[in-house]
Amino acid sequence: MASNSSEIKREVFDGTLKPHYYAPRLTVGRGEAGVALCTLWTLETVLARVLSESDFGLRGPLFSLRGAEYVVRNCLANPVIRAIVVAGSDANGSPEGLLKLVKNGLGPNNEIIGLENEHGKHLVFFDPNLPVSAIDVFRENVQIIDLRGERDWRRVVAKMREIKAGKPYSAERVYYPESLPAANLLPSERYGMRVERESIADAWLDAIFHIRRFGVVKPSDKGRDLQELSSLHVVLNERMDGILDRIPRWLPVTRNGIENYLPVMLSGKPREGVDVAYTYGMQFQNYNGLDQLAEIVTLMRTEWYTKRAVAITWELPDHLTNQIDSAPCVVDLMFLIQDDKLLMTAHFRSHDMFRAWLENVYGLRFLQSEMAQKIGVGLGKLEVISNSAHLWQDIVPDADRVVAEQYPALASLWKEDPRGNFLIAVEGGQIVMTHVDTFGNPTGKVFRGTNGQELYKDAILREGLVSLPDHAAYIAWELGMAAIALTTGSLYRQDRA
Question: Which pTM was predicted?
Answer without folding.
Answer: 0.80
